[in-house]
């Protein structure tokens, strides 16, 4: 029997289905990876924004991670919305306890509409507890600014921020350039502690980018779970998110979800 590859997402639920746990599980499935989840919070959310956030009790987070750790070893793990320093400490402790090494940390802080998904006081715990465990960290520019305390405008700033982030522990830093800066391209920067690799592509003109960061980091975790190198996993993840944005579904009156079927459609010729 072929070995089934498994990935775990530790993140919040998005009732609208475009971001969070839902985006992660759809991405795992599309990339042929068995998905598992540990919920940190329930959000009431749609394309217009976040209407409410209900963090889970510490015991609920601990119990989910112990259930998975006791029986179902994931080949890769990603974290998304963690909400509080208390949850971050639990998650980091369990990742250490179970030796989950292929870890992608998406340092989710704010939803596209501006609602906070991480308490301000939790940034320090994220840096102290979780970043040292990460194989890959995937901040967008505003998240990188908060983590490093610096303002990022030009390319030299991005490189400086990537160096600072790398010094916090992750082996690979992916500084994402999706945030609309008025340019016609998107430039993601990959830094492995030695060289900078710029990954550039066209900026797709759309407002339907809800869940891009979640989907992208879940796609990286999928590649890692399959045993791909970090560079290979990032390259497939980039193709996955680009297709998902290009063929976005256009639901809702606000920032609609991306299309998790798109990459598979292009590779398998199946329509959703
Ligand atoms: N409009 C866009 N066109 C092309 N790629 C995009 C666009 N928006 C985001 N991306 C890509 O999607 C991925 C997620 O990036 P980003 O949107 O910056 O994350 P986040 O959701 O955390 O803000 C990155 O690889 C980024 O380059
Ligand atoms: C539960 C949850 N987690 C994460 C995000 C961030 O979404 P994005 O990928 O658009 O930054 C979100 N809106 N909701």
TrEMBL record:
NCBIfam families from the xrefs?
HMP-P_kinase
Keywords (A to Z) from UniProt: Kinase, Thiamine biosynthesis, Transferase
Sorted alphabetically, which Pfam families does this protein's record hold? Phos_pyr_kin (PF08543)
Q: Which organism is it from?
A: Paenibacillus tianjinensis
List GO molecular-function terms, semicolon-separated. Answer: hydroxymethylpyrimidine kinase activity; phosphomethylpyrimidine kinase activity
First-level EC class: transferase
**Top-level taxon in the UniProt lineage:** Bacteria
> Where is each Pyridoxamine kinase/Phosphomethylpyrimidine kinase domain found?
14-259
Protein name (Swiss-Prot/TrEMBL): Hydroxymethylpyrimidine/phosphomethylpyrimidine kinase
Part of which pathway? Cofactor biosynthesis; thiamine diphosphate biosynthesis; 4-amino-2-methyl-5-diphosphomethylpyrimidine from 5-amino-1-(5-phospho-D-ribosyl)imidazole: step 3/3; Cofactor biosynthesis; thiamine diphosphate biosynthesis; 4-amino-2-methyl-5-diphosphomethylpyrimidine from 5-amino-1-(5-phospho-D-ribosyl)imidazole: step 2/3
Q: Does the keyword Ion transport apply?
A: no
The family this protein is said to belong to: Belongs to the ThiD family.
């Amino acid at each position: 029997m072929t070995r089934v590859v498994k990935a775990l997402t530790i993140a919040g639920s998005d009732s609208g289905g475009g971001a969070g746990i839902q985006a992660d599980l759809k991405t795992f499935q599309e990339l042929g990876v068995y998905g598992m989840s540990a919920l940190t919070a329930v959000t009431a959310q749609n394309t217009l924004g976040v209407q409410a956030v209900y963090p889970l009790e510490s015991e609920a987070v601990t119990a989910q991670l112990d259930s998975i750790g006791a029986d179902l070893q994931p080949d890769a793990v990603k974290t998304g919305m963690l909400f509080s320093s208390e949850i971050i400490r639990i998650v980091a402790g369990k990742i250490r306890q179970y030796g989950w090494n292929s870890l992608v940390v998406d340092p989710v802080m704010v939803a596209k509409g501006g609602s906070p998904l991480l308490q301000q006081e939790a940034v320090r715990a994220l840096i102290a507890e979780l970043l040292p465990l990460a194989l890959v960290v995937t901040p967008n520019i505003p998240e990188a600014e908060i983590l490093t305390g610096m303002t990022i405008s030009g390319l030299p700033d991005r490189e400086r921020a990537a160096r600072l982030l790398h010094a916090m522990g992750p082996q690979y830093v992916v500084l994402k350039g999706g945030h609309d800066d008025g340019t016609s391209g998107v430039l993601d920067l990959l830094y492995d502690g030695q060289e900078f690799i710029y990954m550039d592509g066209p900026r797709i003109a759309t407002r339907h980018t809800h869940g891009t960061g979640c989907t992208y980091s879940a796609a990286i975790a999928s590649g890692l779970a399959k045993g791909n190198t970090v560079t290979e996993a990032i390259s497939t993840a980039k193709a996955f998110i680009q297709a998902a944005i290009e063929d976005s579904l256009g639901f809702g009156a606000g920032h609609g979800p991306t299309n998790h079927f798109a990459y598979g459609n292009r590779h398998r010729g199946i329509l959703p």
